[in-house]
């Protein structure tokens, strides 16, 4: 029979899963209702696609891969069970699908939405995108071809590839919020940026952090938290930026109705990644 802490952990896990999962719906629904992506910095969905793609692979590996789980147990003997749960896997896959849908709304030929002429990815976003892909190729090459690497957890192992993917997710989370926060500041408005997703994201971040603490306490060793840096960092970073967005929406720019669609007053240097002129460019 599960203990009280195990029940609490399960309830927290599925509650944060629901909060975070539902948080991906307000923005694409808002875009659909307005038939426009104005107010949403394209950096956010761009990095979300990369980040949650990496996070999906990470959670799947920790939950299902015998190789990854055994290598994790070797490096964390005091708490050999990864703190990734099935709700983490379900959340990651669901989030990835919704992020792809939101990102696709920037392409007129798919949805027919109004897209700002300057809705292109910023330089930091491009650096994170291509730098992450390059770094992953490097890590996979080292693990796959270095003598003695791969299956030996005492050296470069496949677990390190999964950890690298996790840090890609963390990097995306750190960077993706910054352009949107600055974008809101330049426009002095949060019109077009859904506050509903932020409130749900904030709730999910707090609950996710609580579940991680409870799971580690049940194992009697707090290294379980250090062993899952992605989940820990994801919760803390999300909460900090959620507070910033809540402050912008309800205090700094409360009541603002500015819908000048990105271009007016937006002076950031932008660089296209792909796309034809007149279509969405990232």
TrEMBL record:
Among its keywords, does the record have Mitochondrion?
A: no
Lineage, top-rank taxon, reads Eukaryota
Q: Does the keyword Transport apply?
A: yes
Transmembrane stretches in the record are 6-25, 46-64, 89-111, 123-145, 157-178, 190-214
A GO cellular component annotation in the UniProt record: fungal-type vacuole
> Which InterPro entries does this chain map to?
LC_transporter, PQ-loop_rpt
Annotated segments matching region Disordered: 262-282
Per its UniProt record, what PANTHER family does this chain match?
CYSTINOSIN
User: What is stated as this protein's family in its record?
Assistant: Belongs to the cystinosin family.
Designated name of the protein: L-cystine transporter-like protein
């Amino acid at each position: 029979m599960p203990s009280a802490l195990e029940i609490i952990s399960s309830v927290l896990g599925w509650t944060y899963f629901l909060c975070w999962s539902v948080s991906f719906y307000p923005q694409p629904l808002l875009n659909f209702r307005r038939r426009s992506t104005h107010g949403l910095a394209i950096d956010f969905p761009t990095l979300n696609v990369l980040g949650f793609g990496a996070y999906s692979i990470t959670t799947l590996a920790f939950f299902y891969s015998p190789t990854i789980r055994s290598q994790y147990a070797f490096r964390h003997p005091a708490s050999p069970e990864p703190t990734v749960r099935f709700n983490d896997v379900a959340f990651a896959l669901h989030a990835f699908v919704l992020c792809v849908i939101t990102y696709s709304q920037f392409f007129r030929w798919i949805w027919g939405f109004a897209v700002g002429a300057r809705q292109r990815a910023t330089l930091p976003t491009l650096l994170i995108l291509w730098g992450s892909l390059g770094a992953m190729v490097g890590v996979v090459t080292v693990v796959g071809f270095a003598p003695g690497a791969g299956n030996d957890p005492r050296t470069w192992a496949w677990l390190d590839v999964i950890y690298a993917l996790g840090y890609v997710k963390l990097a995306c989370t750190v960077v993706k919020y910054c352009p949107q926060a600055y974008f809101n500041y330049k426009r002095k408005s949060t019109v077009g940026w859904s506050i509903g997703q932020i409130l749900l994201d904030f709730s999910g971040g707090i609950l996710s952090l609580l579940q991680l603490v409870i799971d580690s306490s049940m194992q009697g060793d707090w290294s379980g938290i250090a062993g899952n840096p992605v989940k820990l960092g994801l919760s803390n970073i999300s909460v900090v930026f959620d507070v910033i967005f809540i402050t912008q929406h309800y205090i700094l720019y409360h009541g603002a109705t500015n819908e000048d669609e990105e271009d007016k007053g937006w002076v950031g240097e932008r660089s296209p990644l792909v796309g034809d002129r007149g279509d969405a460019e990232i």
